[in-house]
Each structure stands twice: as structure tokens, then as C-alpha cells.
Amino acid sequence: MESAVNQRIILTGFMGVGKSTVARFLSFILKCKKIDLDAAIEEAERRSIAEIIEHIGEADYRRIETENLCRVLTDKDAQIIALGGGAWTIEENRRLIKQHDFTTVWLESTFEHCWRNISGSKRVRPLAKSKTQARQLFYERQKLYCLADWHFIVKPDLTSFEIAKKIAEEVF
Ligand code: S3P
Known about the structure:
five-stranded parallel β-sheet, single chain, globular, binds shikimate-3-phosphate, alpha/beta
């Protein structure tokens, strides 16, 4: 696919912040290929992430996640990758992402904003079963999301399309 940009972008951020939707709009605006890591894992494993985590536990899930991250990072056509919320928190994954020359954008928002989306979504998120569990994870991870190259503050009044447009204007 011929694309208007030469920079490769990773979107990271907490569950429910809108990484997948923003990645979809970014790929539409910039006319380039995007990969959603969670979807790539579910396709490769032929089961949902919730099922994988429930069956083999989070530690083994992270191993599968890293294997799939390696695979998508080496897809030369993929210019935009949306990570699952935990992928960026693994040091090995951050190293691989840097090694493959991606620019990382942290979609930063408040916990309440993310929780509204998590609790209103049909998607099962095994690591955010309760608000208390999700809140704890949210605050633990802030210092790691902070390591991303760009921080984009997601204001609740912006639509995902507007966020994608602003990222496209500011980052590219
Ligand atoms: C996770 C986030 C999920 C998914 C998995 C673990 C996490 O992705 O990868 O349930 O640890 O934050 P989303 O951020 O797309 O919900």
C-alpha cells in the first residue's frame, strides 16, 4: 500500500482509552496499513484474549503477546500498530519497539474516562474485572506509559476521529 508518511507509529495507553479506534482512523487518514496487536493475537491463537488469560494466566499470555509483537513489528507495511494496554509495560517489548524504529504515542486520559469505556464495552477484560482492580493497574502503569516518545492528552469531548486527525497533524 502506498502511504503518505514515512514514520511508523505505535499507540499505547490504558485499556478503554481508544487505541484501536484511533488507530483505525489514523490508518484511514494517512492511507496506510495498521495492525491491532490484540486482534492479531486472537487471530493467530484462534481464541479471545480473555480465554487465553483465563486458561494459561497472565505471565504466559505476555509471552504470546511478545511473540506476536515481534511478528507484527517485522511487517514492513504496517505503519500504525495499536498495542494492548499491558504490552508497553513489558521492558522486552519496549526494547523491541525501539529496535524497529517506531515512534510511540501514549494516549493519556483520566482513569474515569477509561473506566467509562471499559464498563460500557462488551469486550471482556480479565485484568479489569472490578473498578478497584482497574484503578490500581492504571496508577501503577503511569510511570511506564510516560516513557513513550509522545504524550497525547485525550480530552473527553474529542471524538476518536478528531484525536486521529490531531495526531496525524502533530506527529507526522
Ligand atoms: C490488557 C489490555 C487489553 C488486552 C489484555 C490485557 C492490559 O487490551 O491486551 O486484556 O494488560 O492492559 P486493550 O488495552 O485493548 O483493552
